[in-house]
What does this fold into?
Amino acid sequence: MLNRISPSELNKPVPEREYISESIPYNDATYRKSSTPILWLDEYGDVRWNKAAEYGMIKYLTEKQFPNLESTRNGSFNKEEILKICKPSSIFILHQHWSGFFSRVLCFIAQFGQTLYSPRIAILRGSRFSGDRGNADDFLGQGILRYFLPISICSAYQFHPDMTNFKSNIESAANSIDVSNSKSLLKTAAMKVDKPLFSMEFWKPDYHHVPIRKWLFDRKKSSVAYDSPIEVLSDHSDEHIYAPKNEKNVRINAKWTDTNKPDAFSSELLAKTPDNQLTWQDYVFGSFLRYMFVLYFGSQNAPRIEYSVRVLAAYWSSYLIDKYSIPKDTNPFDDLASLYIRRGDKSNEDSFWGKHNRWRNLSYYVKGIVDEENRRKKPFKYVFVMTDDASVMSSLRDYANSDSKGTDEKYAREHLRKKEILFNVLAPQDCFDPFHRIGFEQFLVSMRFIIEHAAFNIGHTDSNVYRFLREVVYAQRQHQPNVQSFTYVQNAPDSLTESLNFTKLF
It folds into this structure.
């Protein structure tokens, strides 16, 4: 069984952290070079972090979820040792939501944050997808588990033939201690009783004051523990979290929260007094954690999916190099844009449909590409399309066809003409429709291809999938100079006259 490893660029020794007791003047370049973990808001309201913060968090997650990782990697673990590590008093079982694929992913990411109040290893138990499609694709009844790398050492061996009793105990949550809210979690977090913790709760990201925050960002070594009271954990008067001009009070408005924070932030752990409210630093830290969870759990899929992504990339790279005589040392994907167009049964979640009772014109998505071409002063020659609507693919291929006699969507026809339309050639096909009966596996292959290879992406964050894509792309690339959350991933406009205007908030 392959176990989770940190992303390749992080798979290196973690540098010794430096404790700086004084507040550091706001300076992006200084923060990035520092060996002290630092979080900050930039002038556009994007959450930033330096490599010291990222390395520290990835190291913490790895040690928490995969104790004795080296023994696991060299294959020296046996059944008894695994069971000893994954004993009832060491695990925190999370129930997998009943809903669709990416709702389950986002529920897990939101819920996982609460487990950071405890040293216990988090385990996500399996739950079959509902409906005919679930029966066909989710033939093992594991839900999302089969599509990603294991989230912990216990998850990695949960389905091993010799571990049936262990698997049964996880799925039944027998003799467990129920955690119904963050307050009860704080009371049970460090309990040594020989019972697992178990939570059915979803969308409860009340994790602003977990001990890792003080361990990473306090200006001096902290003595807090998992059983420290919330009064201690919520004292953040001495930490390295900043905003432009070293602002002491930042107004977190609706625009910022829609873009950067996890859903449904809660303050139920805090005493309800006027002087005890969530601060802007709490929101920044919560956003940082969400990005780290996405980077750690969502930046890699199961090996068979990752391999398919490489096959797909090799196919299109070879095709484009041969067709357009591109020099071998040139990356053809530098000229690749992508479109993610979600339709299907999601009209009730689409903001444009809610206003106009129809889907966005395809021209609006194309305008997003054209606007970026104008900004970069270079064209995108190729467009990779990911959609759940076969008519979308058919239309876009027609618009790009120089010999087409169609007259609809004049804007899209004008600007897609002669562009090469790419798609997932590995997906099941019917009459050359690559989106006929596409399963979860190839859906993820397409998504991973976009994340890894598209130079620019247009879609809409009305879709959970696209929101997740945006977060992964930003988490992987924000260390690059001048990268914002909207640099590589943008929402399609709602008209041909709308211009995307990204203004500074500070």
Summary: The chain has a mean pLDDT of 87. The chain has two domains: 8-298, 303-491.
